[in-house]
Amino acid sequence: MQQYFVDQATLTLGQVFTIEGDDFHHLVKVMRAKPGQVIQVVAANQVAYAASIQTIDKATCQLQVDQILQDNCLIELPLDVTLACGISKNDKLDWIAQKGTEGGMACLQPLNLKRDVAKWQANKAAKRIERLEKIVKEAAQQSHRRQIPQVNDCLNLIDFIRQVPNQAIKLIAFEETAKVGHHQVLAKTLSQLDLNQEVLPPLVMVFGSEGGLDIGEVEQLQAAGFKACSLGPRILRAETAPIFALGAISYALELSKNGENLL
Description:
By secondary structure, this protein is an alpha/beta fold. The protein contains 8 helices and 12 strands.
């Protein structure tokens, strides 16, 4: 079932609402939707509903809410995960935005780091963020997320450290940690979380670009409470590491039933 996000704060059974703009174009022009077809919509309260198309005109589509879906609590990761990534060349940040959304990230935070191969150009920042926001919205719809991840403007390391919440779980994916065989930090950190808590602390994880992280940056992050961790014995590409980390987090917190081995 196709999913779309709508602007309404909440929806009620029988309510009629309108889809327009890019979502209308995709639903009607691309997916060739017709009156009577049922789609899934998510309101701003992150609740999903089944809605049937009532009428279609040149620029808008009217739908009626038929059902409140019951799987709303099963979709999102049990904690908010921010991927803070250096700027890589080509479309690698776009790829991280898309696959990170599919993997459950809550926020994408671009970082200006010393070894970045590419640069975040201030005069193009608005368009870059607009593109990333479109990517995460489409990926959230495709993967039936209940929230659209946030995309932040690029920060330098000092400003980034200042805005990380004190209660956050702070990690650095650092390849030098992997090289010396210290692979237990991520697993230990996740295993210590109490999944019975009503609200878990957010998790913020830093990743370098193709050039990796400078040792001075790692020390600066560690001084602010970040822990360097390994993602296993193999060195991952800049665009692969964040997605690999999300998979590990999902397994530890969603699929392994508080540490019970499913294999």
